[in-house]
Amino acid sequence: MLYAGNVLVSRVYHRVEVLRPPRLPRRGPAILVCNHISGLDPLLIQSVSRRVITWMMASEYYDVKAIGWVFRTVEAIPVDRSGRDLAATRAALRALAADRIVGIFPEGRIETDHALLPFQTGVALIAIKTGVPVYPAYLDGTQRGKEMVPALLAPQQARLAFGPAVGFARSSTSRDALEQATDKIRIAVEDLKQQCGAA
User: Fold this and answer.
1) 56: which strand partners?
2) Positive or negative CA dihedral for 81, 127, 134, 124?
3) Spatial separation of the C-alpha atoms in residues 154 and 186, rounded to whole Å
4) Residue ranges for the chain with pLDDT beneath 70
5) Distance separating alpha carbons of residues 9 and 42, to the nearest angstrom
6) Contact at 8 Å (CB) between 77 and 57?
7) What's the alpha-carbon Rg for the chain, to the nearest Å?
8) Which terminal CB of the chain, N or C, has fewer other CB atoms within 10 Å?
9) What pLDDT is stored for residue 78 in this prediction?
């Protein structure tokens, strides 16, 4: 029921256009990474995925009365953005161990323009430690720069593209190895941006 409602709101009211469909595995763990342009992003992306995505998201969204209950229901992982949140990382590892898909916005905050922000290395660290595949996505639309409630209430137009799993070395978690893997992940998202014709 919750999934059907989100599909209706996201695909019809917010007019999500899928330029390249999801390539997520039908079963087993995976990490989905996407650029971050608004508080509405998790709902829009979930609306085109047949599998439930366990999102790592800013803990303050749990306090939004209009929508916070949804994130608790789907067991989204609250992340404290004031610093490194080890509890959130452990929760993500548990979700992957339970064969779930974990969604992460590696920029760590909402973009202020069309340029991708630097990606944090946490995705690469989790992927290397667990051995799970990382799938990129790119999102753009009129909801850019808006917080969750304003973006949710006003109709939007959004575009989404998904790519295949990103290949990168997994033999080390040294700083250089994590940065190289993070660069590969960011390039995969950037490539989707170019294919979407985004500025």
Assistant:
1) 77
2) positive
3) 30
4) 1-14, 61, 64-72, 74, 81-84, 142-143, 145-155, 197-199
5) 13
6) yes
7) 16
8) N
9) 79
